[in-house]
Amino acid sequence: MRRAGAWARRHSSALFLVALVVVLCGGNYLWSARQQDAYEASVHRAHAARLREDQAVLGKLCLTFGKLAVLEPPAGNPQANPSRAYEQTLHMTLVDLGADLGCK
Predict the structure, then answer these.
(1) What is the chain written as a DSSP string?
(2) Is the entire prediction scored with pTM above 0.85?
(3) Cβ distance 73 to 87 under 8 Å?
(4) For the segment 16-40, what is each residue's pLDDT rounded down to a tens digit?
(5) How much is the average pLDDT of 74-96?
(6) Considering Cα of 39, then 44, then 49, then 54, what sign does the dihedral take?
(7) 91 and 65 in contact (C-beta within 8 Å)?
């Protein structure tokens, strides 16, 4: 027991440095974990904000495509009047685009 105490006194500066390294490594680990949690939280908040913006844009698009779907193209024979064919095709394309976006 005496030898261990004498050894510790002789190597006290080395023991202090080892203890200091252990404490600093532990502090670094805790700080890194805290920073990682903060980063992940900010990424989550940004993702949630982006989703809300996307939902708002999609809602506006669906509203517009809903209004366009209600508008009926003029009736008429598309073969006798090519402009009627264009308008009817355009209307069906807009209705299909709204459905492709998931609009009701």
Answers:
(1) -HHHHHHHHHTHHHHHHHHHHHHHHHHHHHHHHHHHHHHHHHHHHHHHHHHHHHHHHHHHHHHHHHHHHHSPPPPS-TTT-HHHHHHHHHHHHHHHHHHHTT--
(2) no
(3) yes
(4) 999 999 999 999 999 999 999 999 9
(5) 88
(6) positive
(7) no
